[in-house]
Amino acid sequence: MTKPKPFSINPSHARSFNAKWMPVTESGCWVWMGDVNITTNYGRICVNSRKVGAHRFSFQLHFGELRGDDLVLHKCDNTLCVRPDHLYLGNAADNVRDRTARTKLRQSKLDEMAIIAIFHARKNGSPYHDIQERYGVDSMTVWSIANGKRWIPVLRSAGLVK
């Protein structure tokens, strides 16, 4: 992993950032609606002609300048979340420990048919709670599928997203 480079935030950057997230009541997350790195599924924002992680930007905007080796981690396990109180500073070991623990907890319960069914159920107005109970997933998973933010190749192959 390469060390992120420091960046400076001006009022224009802050306005741009604040226009690109949306609160999600069910999870409490502020979900990034701007540019997303399709490989990592992390949001990103352009600062001085350079793409910066939206979660790193949020942390710096709300808590002050980051050092190049600071990692900004998610308490909520949602890579698109930019809510400051869902973020915390950690190191590479914390990140690996976090990811390992969450991966074990969250072995995918969903196959392609379930992902497509969740997408359609939400688009047809089924409540989050009903979908969560039926498929044994959390609200962020339902939201991510319904909004084409996760399982993009499955949704794309079904013709549900571009």
Task: Annotate the secondary structure layout.
Elements: H1 11-18, E1 21-23, E2 30-32, E3 44-47, E4 50-53, H2 54-63, E5 71-74, E6 87-90, H3 92-105, H4 112-123, H5 128-135, H6 139-146, H7 152-157
Antiparallel strand pairs: 1-2, 3-4, 5-6
Helix pairs in contact: 4-6
Describe the model.
A two-stranded antiparallel ribbon has the order 1-2. Strands 3-4 form a two-stranded antiparallel ribbon. With 162 residues, it is α+β, with helices and mostly antiparallel strands. The chain folds into two domains: 11-105, Homing Intron 3 (I-Ppo) Encoded Endonuclease, Chain A (Alpha-Beta Complex); 112-157, no CATH class. The chain has helices spanning 11-18, 54-63, 92-105, 112-123, 128-135, 139-146, 152-157, and strands at 21-23, 30-32, 44-47, 50-53, 71-74, 87-90. Helices cover 41% and strands 14% of the residues. Helix 4 (112-123) crosses helix 6. It contains seven helices and six strands, in the order H-E-E-E-E-H-E-E-H-H-H-H-H. Strand 3 (44-47) and strand 4 form a beta hairpin.
CATH architecture group name of the largest domain: Alpha-Beta Complex
Work out the strand percent: 5-15%
Please report the number of helical segments.
7
Shape: globular
**Whole-number radius of gyration?**
17 Å
Q: Count the E strands.
A: 6
What about the largest sheet? 2 strands, antiparallel
Structural class: alpha+beta
Share of residues in helices? 40-55%
Q: Strand order, main sheet: write it out.
A: 1-2
What is the mean pLDDT? Answer: 85
Task: Measure the end-to-end span.
Answer: 30 Å
What CATH calls the topology of the largest domain is Homing Intron 3 (I-Ppo) Encoded Endonuclease, Chain A
In total, how many domains does the architecture comprise? 2
Class of the largest domain in CATH? Alpha Beta
Give the SSE order as H and E letters.
Answer: HEEEEHEEHHHHH
